[in-house]
Recover the amino acids of this structure.
């Protein structure tokens, strides 16, 4: 995520303001110390102009559909992303 932010020439302050989180929270997400919630992840995708499903797939995280309940889940569980 840090590389994506830097490629857009955005500061942590700017992105944290857009996400509505503290700069320390964003720093912790970028360093892998904390995991963003789905809403922050979606907003990061918008800000960084990333295809979120493609980004997650590159990290080894895939959505799988449960045909019996017609719902989706992450498979495997989110792993920390430090890029």
């Amino acid at each position: 995520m840090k590389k994506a932010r830097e490629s857009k020439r955005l500061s942590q302050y700017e992105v944290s303001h857009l996400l509505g989180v503290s700069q320390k929270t964003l720093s912790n997400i970028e360093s892998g110390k904390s995991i963003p919630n789905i809403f922050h992840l979606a907003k990061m995708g918008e800000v960084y102009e990333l295809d979120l499903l493609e980004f997650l797939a590159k990290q080894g995280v895939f959505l799988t559909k449960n045909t019996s309940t017609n719902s989706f889940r992450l498979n495997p569980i989110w792993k920390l992303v430090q890029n």
About this structure: DSSP finds five helices and two strands in the chain. Confidence is low (pLDDT under 50) at residues 77-83.
